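Pinned message: reference record for Malate dehydrogenase
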Amino acid sequence: MKKITIVGAGRVGESTAHNLAKAELCREIVLVDVKEGVPQGTALDIQESAPIFDFDTQLTGSNDLKALAGSELVIVTAGIPRQPGMSRSDVLDTNLAVIYGIVDELLKSAPDAMLLMVTNPVDVLTYAAWKRLGWPRQRVFGMAGVLDSARMASFVALETGFSVKDITAMVLGGHGDAMVPMTRFTCINGIPVEHFLPQEKIAQIVKRTREAGAEILRLRRSASAYDAPAAAVATMVDAISRDRRQILPGVAILDGEYGLKDIAMGVPVVISERGMERVIELPLTPEEAAEFKRSAATVRADIERLKK
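Predicted structure (tokens):
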């Protein structure tokens, strides 16, 4: 791609920009933030690492949303982060207003772009952005499942002692406490994780995966996670930029898949240069389907708040 704009030059936005630049996934990266000097300083700091990391990507910063003009992909990390004790839903009202302002400018300045939502609550805000934009669902999607699955794979590696390179995990549902870690689709070099760990340990990993973001927030106290989320964003951008047609768990607008419509949920999707190319529908057991429906209910409750 030629140009990617990241709206939000906080820790997630900064780490994302550095990952994208080092991988040379586009020619130009623009960081936009309301705080004067912050996106400019962040962009310059990353730019000065180019000779060390050997990349030619050019970075600039701006306080004006019009800077996203001509972007092929807009990544939104802007918004207030949650504080200890807060859920992702607790920041919905404030972040919704932020997202609407970005989306309105996106319609005017980059009407042909794709939108990758990162700001929480990501499922609901992806849905809200899609409704306001009126774009095909292929061009509006969110990041959550790549992060949640990476966290789960990390915990499996820590528990088993096996190389993380051999571990694949899958997490479905809303990006919150009701997410659905799919142990049946979690494998170590193709071998189901149940072969190596007892159900008690697997249950502990599932619980830790659901609470992973809160665990980091509790430990740091003044900052939520940013390195792992940024790495997850970069994985999705790599699939787009290099047209990999890669299967990744992402937040997608559902249109009948998994028996759901008019909702954004975390599901396996095919990511390519066209964006979210299609949803992959996994066969769920009755227990998994029930968990997925419970997760959908929590997302649906927040979506209903948008309509009031």
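Pinned by admin. Summary line: Residues 145-306 form a domain with the L-2-Hydroxyisocaproate Dehydrogenase; Chain A, domain 2 fold (CATH 3.90.110.10).
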